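CO-FOLDING WORKSHEET

Operator: S.A.
Ligand of interest: zinc ion
Run index: 442
Mode: holo prediction, single chain
Checklist:
[x] sequence pasted
[x] SMILES validated
[ ] output reviewed
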Amino acid sequence: MQSRKPKSLKIANMAAVLELLRTTHRASIAEISVRINLSKTTVRKILDNYIEAGLVISVGKGESTDEGGKRPELFAFNKNHGYVISLHVTPEMLLSVITDLNADITHSKIIMLDRQVHVLQVVRFLAEAIREFSAGKNASGERLIGVVIALPGLVDCDRGMSIYSPHYPSWGRNVPLKQMLIAELGADFAAPIFMDCVNRYQAFAELEKGRAPDRGSFLIIDALDEGLGGGMVFSGSIQRGSQCLCGEIGHMILSPNDETSCICGARGCFEAMVSAKRVLRLVRDGHAANRGSSLFDGCAPQQVTLERVSECAAAGDEFARALIEDVAGWYALGLNNIVMVSDPELIVLQGVYTRAGDYFVERVRARMSELGGLPDVEKQVRVEYSTMGDERGAVGAAAFVICNHFRSGHSDRAAVLSLDGGQRRPPVDGVTPEPAVSSSAQ
Ligand SMILES: [Zn+2]
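OUTPUT RECEIVED:
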């Protein structure tokens, strides 16, 4: 007999069950029933529908209750029901990955990119990876729920456009990358395609799999050998700003009279002051006075890398620590300014300086607290390292596509990214989900 509950309520109940299973390892009918306040009969019916559609699987029996009852059947979200192709264009390479529906990488491939690589060539590389990956998946019957491109530089996600990429200046401005990719893939290609600045996806990665609080305000700061970007989340919602500039903290000018020029053409930008180029210049300049430094053990001054400086500092080398102290000072200045604008509860540090270990993050915290600017106000922001690895951009991008897919009734991008009252927004996708449609999808 059909329930008389309104359709929207039924859909919401189904959505709540799927979301619970997506965010829980495994659960019994009784547990689901208690956690989302539905009768066991209703939960059973919903699970049957999802099992038939392939989205939920039975994963064996749990422990029996204290009263010695029957061992309950356990259910889990079927992460292998579909897959995502996530393509991250870094300043050095194209990292292409396939993820399951938990945004865990199941396959990856790297193509190195030259700084002068033509944008058409990049589009061809992207299309080749998509074709190769989806052809390889054809036999498994898994469904491609979306393709996502994470780019460096300024990106207009609504128009699928690279506004400007300082790392690839030859691309030019306002490049309609998504349109070009769709043309290259041909009319038969039907999966939705998403595109945004990688730092926003890296922030999403922290929301879904990392340190970030479920709701609330935080930011990620990602430092590469050359380049520093940010992803800002206010009250659970990723920020883009009026012209997609939000998070371009690398080009906040901290030292306008400094001789250090930035990749963008200005002087004294945050990213220039903490860049490998500047630190390695200081290494070479300091070589004569610091010959005993472990930085130079079996390594010529010209061969020292930023990673080596970070690692030697973590190991206690005095000269490396002095260099990292300088960087920590610029970080503190940059972060302190951002705190006064956005008042986050957490700043997550990602990237190359995480290799400098506790020493670096403790110095950043100390230098921040030494800075003025409302000195009588205790600024309670936490500064912590990310626990995510080098794939954080690709993983965050895939997680974005998956969340969008399972919450696709929210066609607005911001709604997809928002978290409501501490609860993750429920999917309104039914048993047989359709391709997600959002303002950033094709
Ligand atoms: Zn700059």
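REVIEW:
Residues 251, 262, 264, 266, 269, 272 surround zinc ion (CB under 6 Å).
Residues 181 and 271 are 30 Å apart (CA to CA).
[x] output reviewed
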